[in-house]
Amino acid sequence: MSMLDRKGMSQDKRFRYALILAIITGIVVGIGTGLLRGILDTSLFLLLVGYLVAYVIRRYGRGVQTRFSVLGIIVTLCAIFLSDVVASYGLMAIFNIQSYSLVIQFIFYSDGNQWLWIATRVLSLFIAYTYSRVI
Fold first, then answer.
1. 3, pLDDT greater than 60
2. DSSP 8-state symbol, 64
3. How far is CA 27 from CA 75, 77, 79, 134, in A?
4. Which residues of 53-90 are buried (b: 16+ CB within 10 A; e: fewer)?
5. Which positions ≥6 away from 58 have C-beta within 8 Å?
6. What angle do CA 109, 112, 115 make, to 5 degrees?
7. What is the pLDDT at residue 41?
8. Which residues contact 121 (CB under 8 A, 6 or more apart)?
């Protein structure tokens, strides 16, 4: 029973617990928002990605160290990338490496007029960093 007692866990164990749950949340929310963005075509769902990943890390990790915030940024960044792939190329594209390279090419070779595209991603990463740890 002590395995599920989060209050009795050390900070390292809570970090590993938060890591596993954050990765699972990032995959599920990334795919889910990618499907929603495929239907509604808005990037505002990415703010939800940052908040949900941060909520899971804060709720189950309960850490005050910076590594919890860095974990939030990394998982949110991967979830946003996964969401971009699913929104652009569909659900089955997550198994095709070509779709990931095309999304990367789109990021680097697009024109600089996509300020809203950049702003939503940066704001989502900021939300993940800010809300991932207990302060």
1. no
2. -
3. 9, 11, 6, 23
4. bbbbbbebbbbeeeebbebbbbbbbbbbbbbbbbbebe
5. 68, 131, 132, 133, 134
6. 125
7. 78
8. 43, 46, 80
